[in-house]
Amino acid sequence: MSQNQFSWAVAANLIGGCFGCLITGLIRNKFGTKISIYIFCVPSFCGWILLTFSFNWWMVILGRFIIGIAASSFNFNVLVYIGECASKEIRGILLSFFEMSLKFGILFSYVIGSFTKQQVTNAVCASIVIFYAISFSFLPESPLYLMKQHKAEKAKKSLIRLRGSNFKIDDEMTNLKEEIEELERTKKPFWQELSIKATRKAFFILIAMFFFFQMCGINAIVYYTTIIFIESGLTIDPFIATCILGIIQVVSISCTLAFVDRCGRKPLLIISNAVMIFGLFGFGIYFHIKENINVSGFELLPLFMLGIFMIGFSIGVGNVTFVLMGEMFSLNAKRFFGPLTQFMNYLTSFSIAIFFPLVANSIGMHFAFYFFGLCCIFAIIFIIFILPETKGKTLVEIQKLLS
Q: What sequence ranges are listed for the domain Major facilitator superfamily (MFS) profile (predicted)?
């Protein structure tokens, strides 16, 4: 497979993600979060099976496109499910587990892919989809969604399963009822929902946050890790270095889970971007110097710098951005603007997947990393002056804050 074909194989997943975002909201609104997740397990399984038995480039493209449709749905539905089911005291840490699971999945594929054939890796991923569907069947439907469907008794049973019988269920049921009544009273179609200040502000903030999420270069590094290490002249096996980078991601995000609801969203995001700036500019300088000077003796520096970048990404941007996604939209706004936000996220990621290798080959790898570092500087400015703090607030309180 040529580099151009590889780039489009990467991008096919993201094109599928864009398409999936457009239909996810419709399916979720009709069938609920839990059933929606079940529905999208089907294309996910089919996509992995297609990749397992693929024998040409087009089958790879089609398989990754189908998987992208399912992946974008999981991204949205899981965040919504956690945001609606979790209490405000632990919502942040539970939403952070979502990003940790993504990084663990990437590490899993790195490790399996390094020691087995690609077909085996794909078959294992297909079996994981089946396990996921079975295990998810033991979880209840979102009580907030059930209340919205006027199924109060089922919502109460769902809360008891989620909170335990000793929790003050009646008080929370009252809060849910009041919240649903308020949402029904203020329910509007898309164009009128956009006229609400809190919705507009949340949409603008999340579009910006996911733009900065992609423009820090995380997916360019994840998609092309092995190629980047080969170009850098790394002295150890690039596949082993890739696995090391994956381990750093998982360990870093695991160590910071407890801080999401203690330190707040903004401090973690600022520190995260600052650390990434150091790693990105350090990596860019290495490539810049490598073009003109012999860098013998410093071949491990790229792994060190990307390791710093991954630590920075994992302690804030990598998980807090998804926490904000689960917090900032009202239940009504999520119907329209949750999938639309994810659509823009996938579109930006698609652009990165296509243009990163072109920029790296035509202008230089160093230019791409300087650009990513500059975007992190702009992200810090945005976080300081525009992003509101949502730590410890209920979904209703966040809407009032945005208003």
A: 1-391
